Amino acid sequence: MHRVAVLELLRAHLARVRDVREAEMGAEIVRFVEAHEDCFLRACLTGHLTGSAWIVDAARTQTLLTHHRKLDRWLQLGGHADGETDLAQVAMREAREESGLSRLRLVSGALFDVDRHSIPERGDVPGHWHLDLRFMIEADPSEPCVVSDESHALAWVPLSEVARFNESESLARLVRKTLRYC
Q1: What is the mean pLDDT of residues 7-17?
Q2: Residue 161 maps to which CATH number?
Q3: CA distance 11 to 108
Q4: What is the CA 76 to chain-centroid distance, rounded?
Q5: pTM of the full predicted structure?
Q6: Into how many domains does the chain fold?
């Protein structure tokens, strides 16, 4: 599998990162991609790349969150690369599939954020790492959403209230970056 493009995307992002923890995770992701040719596949059982959609409205005042069925947490939308090497397209695919929205716009082909988080063991699948490449995607909150079978619910949430849904540093960092991006 071709890893050069994703490594270039990651390195370009790391050159701009201000957050120390994000920079550390990004460096870990680079090392992982360099060491694992199968990093785009779920079959890479220690971890694999995922693409997330940080969906915001045009005014950058709210975001679309999903109440994830398996993890039972409010999160940004996203999912597995499943062999796709263009992680922006993975994020767009997941945004469409998990929200039912069709009028989506990738704000930039550049990464908005990276995160490395542990996924617990589930059935036959051992605990592993999701190496998450996150892209900002714009959508219209007036377009009706459709809850997929991967979610309990979807909600447009004001950025100022995201912590009420999920207090994680991961989402707090996305909110801070969005507020700076305006």
Answers
A1: 97
A2: 3.90.79.10
A3: 16
A4: 6
A5: 0.95
A6: 1
